[in-house]
Amino acid sequence: MTTLELLPAVDVRNGQAVRLVHGESGTETSYGSPLEAALAWQRAGAEWLHLVDLDAAFGTGDNRALVAEVTGAMDIKVELSGGIRDDASLAAALATGCTRVNLGTAALETPEWVAKVIAEHGDKIAVGLDVRGTTLRGRGWTRDGGDLYETLERLNREGCARYVVTDIAKDGTLQGPNLDLLRDVCAATDRPVVASGGVSSLDDLRAIAGLVPLGVEGAIVGKALYAKAFTLEEALAVVSG
Ligand SMILES: O=C(O)c1ccccc1N[C@@H]1O[C@H](COP(=O)(O)O)[C@@H](O)[C@H]1O
Fold first, then answer.
1. 2 confidence band (pLDDT: 50, 70, 90)
2. Ligand 1 centroid to residue 17 C-alpha, Å
3. Contact (Cβ atoms closer than 8 angstroms) between residue 53 and residue 79
4. Atom 18 (ligand 1) nearest CA
5. Which of 11, 65, 236, 240 has the fewest CB atoms within 10 Å, i.e. is most exposed?
6. Residue 210 carries which DSSP code?
């Protein structure tokens, strides 16, 4: 088995590390300090951190200074998401020293800008394809944003380096990943895919790792780690191989 990258998630709302269910505002469970959570994943051996400013994604403010502090404290790679939608927010995100950013809403609402920043920044830009069924969702997953496969075709043409694919129906539910969706997206692109949403067990990680030959490069793990369904050390042992 080829190694699957694991990206433990730290989602920040109102200065706290939280997990949501289906990405719905108001369903937060709080897990304390984002910096402590991120440092704990780093100590446990993570090579990546998936860091999300949920307030910026929802349009309820931002946690920009905190997110920059967390990113600056990491010795590991950081994928930064949430509210990166224009030149100013992109510059602020890249200035944190993160390894790459993940654009969601912008890819749906300002495609010309996204094509421009893909051309300028290459693999520092990933696009988050957050879907219900095959309909993309933006603005904190509250608004429809078009068809997954039409958008994917456009982004492929524009040279997008990587996709982070989230099944919203699975996110935060511990119900297992949508493997069919991941297979379908891999069939529609030759770019690496990061899987997000639903991981509940080490067997789920084994199943995602089975898709590495198809193009799945990594998996974001959130709720399962916070709920202690398994440890990050156990997860890393399962996927490295
Ligand atoms: O990660 C979540 O739980 C989440 C929930 C609701 C909205 C967004 C969420 N996360 C990530 O935020 C970015 C999108 O932000 P934007 O649309 O670019 O402002 C994307 O990576 C989502 O996966």
1. low
2. 14
3. no
4. 104
5. 65
6. T
